[in-house]
């Protein structure tokens, strides 16, 4: 996997620390690009982007800096869980438009952009928004249970949910393999919708469903790590590797 590198995009409310076990496993194989969205990761003084295009523009600028440093786009494996899957997909689309493309896209716990449901979670009162995030299981309980942390991060959570709600939901077709991971009990990313992902990538794309819901899938960072490494190594043989 000489030259391989990885870009990991976070779910709602998270930042560079979203995938600690994956990062530990990937750093022995290549550079990890961990984008920093506004409102977290040293950017607490900046308001989090509440529109998807604004958020994507910010993260695209960060990825372009890596490309400007000489990192090869055709060695890049993009990954994201939930909201992060939408962001990783958008980066793959922009790389393709640029004429370079990526090595592979790995997504988890999110339907393809054109199958996103219209959910207005960001319009809920604070208590109901927190309850909705708790039900999804993507925000750690210790954060939800801490009044000070909760108050500090509520604007970020609300902005991220708004960004997802404003996603343009346009169909995408990619010239790289697309590998998808889904939970059999995930109400936010149903198996029928997840099954559409491989049709959006080139031959060799794949889908794997595992037992559990949305939060259970996020807990399987070992599985997500294996998927990303397999996609970097032999994209056409990824099904046999994980």
TrEMBL record:
It comes from the Bacteria. Residues 8-222 form the Thioesterase domain. SUPFAM superfamilies: alpha/beta-Hydrolases (SSF53474). Belongs to the thioesterase family. This is Thioesterase domain-containing protein.
